[in-house]
Design brief:
Number of helices: 10
Order of helices and strands: EHHHEHHHEEEHEHEHHEE
Structural class: alpha/beta
Largest sheet: 7 strands, mixed
Number of strands: 9
Shape: globular
Strand content: 15-25%
Helix content: 25-40%
Strand order of the largest sheet: 4-3-1-6-7-9-8
């Protein structure tokens, strides 16, 4: 079963290996769209005040503007390692077994607003651009929806969509795909969770990588290993978070 994750605003700095100007990210079908997005981002970041406003940057993280200007030549690391924050801290890249990393390579993808759908272990540079950012002359939702039309046919089997709605809107899954959208709910009230949403997603994603997830029928079993409960209702996976999680 393929798993789609959202990215995060925060990212780990640094990296090693080839920059993206020397080693292209896979899926050549996305290269023209990536080129458009990167050029527009670099153009935006040449005006510091405009970039800070569009990217919603405060005084403490304006260094990200310079990082965007150097994006083509900066160091890279696996996307699953690059992203940080609550979800990715709970997933724990540095703690994953070799088997889990192999599953991540084969089954997990991250929806980037700058690079499109990226395999979890594909190497990417540090950057700053969210789904809600505005780029000069570019609609990210139109750009990525059009660009992925030639990518989706190559992704076969069931899909578990753990992306936030903002990133779903950038690249909706075609209706002919057997996909399931993840909803994180309070185990007591059944209401949607905000505070523990990302932590639960990260813990569930880690359990998926460590134990495997072949189909939607295995969702409850895998969720239990993460200390959660889950059920499949139609094309929705409901993930229930207990008190004190």
């Amino acid at each position: 079963m393929l798993v789609l994750l959202p990215p995060s605003e925060t990212k780990r700095p640094g990296g090693v290996g080839e920059s993206i100007d020397k080693a292209a990210i896979i899926w050549a079908a996305l290269d023209p769209a990536r080129d458009i997005a990167i050029k527009a981002l670099v153009q935006l970041c040449q005006d510091e005040e405009a970039a800070a406003k569009s990217l919603k940057l405060g005084k403490t993280n304006r260094k990200d503007i310079q990082a965007n200007l150097e994006i083509m030549t900066s160091a890279t690391m696996p996307a699953l390692q690059r992203y940080t924050g609550v979800l990715y801290d709970a997933l724990g890249y540095d703690e994953l077994s070799k088997e889990a990393l192999q599953r991540a390579k084969n089954q997990m993808f991250i929806q980037s607003s700058l690079f499109g759908l990226v395999p979890a272990l594909e190497r990417i540079p540090y950057y700053r651009l969210s789904a809600g950012s505005s780029l000069p002359g570019v609609s990210l939702s139109r750009l990525w929806a059009d660009a992925h039309r030639n990518v989706w046919p190559g992704l076969t089997g069931q899909i578990l969509d753990m992306r936030s709605k903002a990133y779903v809107s950038l690249n909706p899954i075609p209706k002919d795909k057997d996909s399931f959208f993840l909803e994180v709910l309070d185990a007591n009230s059944g209401k949607a969770l905000n505070h523990f949403n990302k932590k639960a997603k990260g813990a569930f994603a880690k359990a998926i990588l460590e134990t495997g997830l072949a189909s939607s029928s295995e969702v409850p079993k895998v969720a239990k290993l993460a200390g959660l409960e889950a059920r499949v209702s139609g094309q929705t996976v409901e993930l229930f978070v207990p008190a004190g999680f």
